[in-house]
Amino acid sequence: MKKGFTILEMIIVLTIIALIFLLTLPQIQQKKEVIDNKGCEALVEVVNSQILLYEVETLETPSSIDQLINKGYLKDSQRRCPDGETITIQGGEASASK
């Protein structure tokens, strides 16, 4: 007699794994949204700190994020949040908007 799994046992195990995956998938997607939002908030704070550094070194307030990128205070990849929102400078303060 050969030892091993029958096809029925394999189907049952795969069905259980698929059900567990389907139950946890919405939670994973929800956590991704929370992470993206927190990442965007953190990036806005980084830009705000670079605005302050720019003001201290040049005695001017930057009017756009391009000024910070061109002077080397930010990287071009820091122009957008992980969730796709664009960071802009208004009144000397950074904010994210779609």
From TrEMBL:
It comes from the Bacteria. Keywords: Cell membrane, Membrane, Methylation, Transmembrane, Transmembrane helix. It holds the Pfam family N_methyl. InterPro entries: ComGC (IPR016940), N_methyl_site (IPR012902), Pilin-like (IPR045584). It is a single-pass membrane protein. It is found in: Cell membrane. The chain crosses the membrane at residues 6-25. Belongs to the ComGC family. This is Competence protein ComGC.
